[in-house]
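[INFO] parsing input record for Cation transporter
[DEBUG] input buffer:
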Amino acid sequence: MFKGLIDRFLSKQANGEARPKAGILAGRVGLISNFLLFGIKLLAGTMSGSISIITDGMNNLGDSASSLLTLFGFRAASKPADKEHPYGHERSEYITGLLISVVIIYVGFQFFTSSIKQIMNPTPLNASPLVFILLVVSILVKIIQGNFYKTAAKAIHSNTLHSAAQDSINDVFVTLIVLVSATVETVTGWQIDGYAGALLSVIIVYSGIQAINDSINDLLGTSPSKDEIQAMKTLLDEYDSIVGYHDLLVHNYGPNKTFATIHIEIDDSWDLTYSHQVIDQIEADFEEKLGVELVCHVDPIAIHNEEHTAIYRQVKDILKSFQLDLKFHDFKVDSKNHRSHITFDVVIPDGVEESNDELISMIQEKIHSNIGAYELVIEFDRLDLLKEV
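[DEBUG] output buffer:
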């Protein structure tokens, strides 16, 4: 419904300005529509004497405050990087989401108290046809608002607007409960308005707690999705010249600011200039195709050394024999102080119960008995993102 309008709006914005301006537009739409809904439900609640309708209206007033915070959040997030914040200000959006969550919970607790009072001292409802019309209109407005948020969230990849869209859908069901409650009380005379208000308050508090959890996760930093990792892996697999890759680390400094580091395994016979050209191309492709600022660490691999290759294959067979789906990288065979060393990192899948010491003992025993008395230097990695795809 709104996709064409939002696409046209974004196409008219300058590079780098589309996302914050779309977020600010969504904030303005939400501010106006939520304040309108607050007025409608306050009128309906005052006319009918319904605590649940007034509670629902105050929920919309809280949504208006959330929209205002969304405006400030996107404005702050659009500020360019500076000396104090070299990675930009996009995480301001997450802080805004956290503040919005606190407002939602506060509103929920306030009206839970009011609803309990209504249950203890119920007053009759006076719901005229106009009250029911106002409630139906507010449901339609929320449906339209939710679709707008959802479309905008997809267009600019905003978790904040996605949460706002979900909140709008939740509000539709909240108002439906209010409408059903008013209908039941009008038809049967059962005074359930306070109970409906209490239920709504619990729903509001629960949604606020969920939103706080999402905001805290964004601020602390979370792993990229499997789709994001797969997109990076697919792009890396296009480079037939590299031997392999490992140790992917991803850091997000906002919805549009993603940095990553990775180790790229290359043929150790390459000269420095050619190696640099290959790495530069990989980093440029990540920036252009995925919007990720990648930094590559080079790991030279002696793929033309027959002794090295034979030991590599033996170690691979040994790790496979444990049937733990162990993978390894950074493999090197060298001599130090008249001693031969084998060095490599082992990636351990989730669910492996053996400790690092137990695994070292198992690997060392088999290497010594099958390959020879090499000194082993083994690092274990239980957090490798690439093992998930």
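[INFO] The chain has three domains: 3-220, 241-301, 305-389.
[INFO] shutting down worker
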